[in-house]
Amino acid sequence: MEEDTEGDRLHYITKGNVMLLHKKSATYIAEVSIDTFIGEIAFFTAKPRRATAKSQNFTEVLTLMKEDFVHAAKKDQKQFDIVEGIRKTLGSKHNDYTLLGIECHLCHEKGHISLDCNMYTEIKGNMRQQWLKKMKENEWNNEDQSGEIP
Ligand SMILES: [Zn+2]
């Protein structure tokens, strides 16, 4: 899933880990796993995707297409009004996603995403650092494993 693309689908992770990053600023945001939604802002608003999601290993997701979602909602006027209400409310508030129950990966407050967080400026451009940290962790893991081999 690439940032700045249209959010025509909503994903729900059922297996594996997904890394969230902001390619434009070379920033690692967080790693999310099972029971997490990805792409909900772009899905419920007309805004393009804010972040890029990359699977870290074998990952399984449930996917809901926007087309199917709107089609199903249109079958019941009440449901359709709710969906329209969510879209309008989110569109009228600048970067306020309280309605979607979104929690920031950096400060863990509800209502905003990491890219709009004050703490984001501190981690901006941290991709190389994160990569080196991961490499180190893998080295440790490999050493542990080799110790078990007779
Ligand atoms: Zn925050």
Topology, please?
Elements lengths: L8 E7 L2 E5 L4 E6 L4 E2 L1 H5 L7 E4 L4 E6 H9 L2 H16 L27 H4 L3 H22 L2
Antiparallel strand pairs: 1-4, 1-6, 2-3, 2-5
The protein binds zinc ion (ZN).
The site of zinc ion has 7 residues, from loops.
Which characteristics define this entry?
binds zinc ion; 150 residues; alpha+beta
Please tell me about this protein's structure.
Helices cover 37% and strands 20% of the residues. The chain has 150 residues and is of the alpha+beta class. It has a single domain, classed as Jelly Rolls (Sandwich), CATH 2.60.120. The radius of gyration is 18 Å and the shape is globular. The relative contact order is 0.17. The structure holds zinc ion (ZN).
Q: What do the pLDDT scores average to?
A: 90
CATH superfamily: Jelly Rolls
Can you write the helix and strand succession as a string? EEEEHEEHHHH
Shape: globular
Q: In this structure, how is the largest beta sheet organized?
A: 3 strands, antiparallel
Précis, in short:
The chain is of the alpha+beta class and 150 residues long. The protein has helices spanning 40-44, 66-74, 77-92, 120-123, 127-148, and strands at 9-15, 18-22, 27-32, 37-38, 52-55, 60-65.
